[in-house]
Amino acid sequence: MDLFLILSVVAIIAALLFGLLFISFFNLWLQARVSGAPVGFFNLFFMKLRKVPPGLIVNNRITAAKANIELSTDDLEAHYLAGGDVTNVVLALVAADKAGIDLPFARACAIDLATKDTGKTVLEAVRTSINPKVIECPNPATGVTKITAVAKDGIAVNVRARVTVRTNLERFVGGATEETVIARVGEGIVTSVGSAPSYKDVLENPDSISRLVLQKGVDSGTSFEILSIDVADVDVADNIGARLQAEQAEADKQVAQAKAEMRRAAAVASEQEMAARTQEMRAKVVEAEAGIPMAIAEAFRNGNLGIMDYVKYQNVNADTDMRKSIAGDSTNQ
Question: Which of 70, 99, 100, 209 is the most exposed, having the fewest neighbouring CB atoms within 10 Å of its CB?
Answer without folding.
Answer: 100
